[in-house]
Amino acid sequence: MDVLKQTASTIKKHRMLTGGEKVLIALSGGPDSSCLASVLTELSRELDLTLFAHYVDHGLRPEETPAEIEQCAALCKSLGIEFTHSIVNVDELVKNQGINKQEAARELRYKALEEAASACGAKRTALGHTLDDQAETFLMRVIRGSGPSGLSGIPPVRGAIIRPLIGSRKPDILEYLRAKGIGYAVDSSNLKGKYLRNRLRQNVLPALEEINPSIVDTLGRTTEILADEERYFFIEVTKALMRLITSKADDHIELFLVPLETLDNAIARRVLRRAIAETTSLRRLGYAHIEEILSLVRNGKPGDSIDLPLKVKVIKKSSPFLIPTAPPVHLETRTMDGPGVLEIKEAGMKLEAQITG
Fold this sequence. Notes:
By secondary structure, the chain is α/β, with parallel strands linked by helices.
């Protein structure tokens, strides 16, 4: 389908825009975001949109970034879009949080876009993910063992984030750019075989297309089906949590043990993930961790506990079931020379020693 028509259809299908909004475009200078900027400019007259664009410099490709910024600025000038750019420090976040560069870059990019959107008053931020990206993401998550939630793919809408090109194919995008005479930058990191996504794009998907020429569309439909089912499960899990939660604070959540033990695995896994997400991040929490918690719920003895990543501790009590997320307090050894009172501020307690007899 023509990219312009497909984008208009996607926007309407997922209710991304109603008209009259200010929209920030995440612009990298690559083909997808360049197409997005042009297509939204064409649709802006019909939808009464005010467009802005922002480039995030991750500091990872200093030899390519200046040319990309220049490319973005020139495109925005030709389209009449206000353009800004910012720099983030990926290496610093990697050092401070111990995460990989790709994860750090993603986290900082979204934060920078959020700040840019706030600065220009944009209520929506448009990203250039395509149907091809959706298919690649699905395969990546299959390989890594994701559950149904992960396999539901890249959401077309999440909060203020919209992805108008999520129903469009890469060949159609390249043809659109060629027809419009719009140039674009090529990110050298997209050509490196060390990244899984690139290997899938360059080797696996072409092989699958020999078996099923419509494999990208097929995988796209699969993610839509799974996303619909996840929305249903989200409602069911919400209902279950409303019955199960007995106490909730910033650093812990307590669940009724007996009804939790009787839940079907499909609901129980989701309940536990949501319960943990209520008080901490799910980052580094995988299938094996959830299975370990399920085993504790059903087979553990009262008082048994397990430690999870990010200092999360899960404790089985007689009732309820406790998931505290505050790190444990480590106390230094203290001595008392004689009778008196010893205050232990970290534990919020005092010890009094007396001589009797």
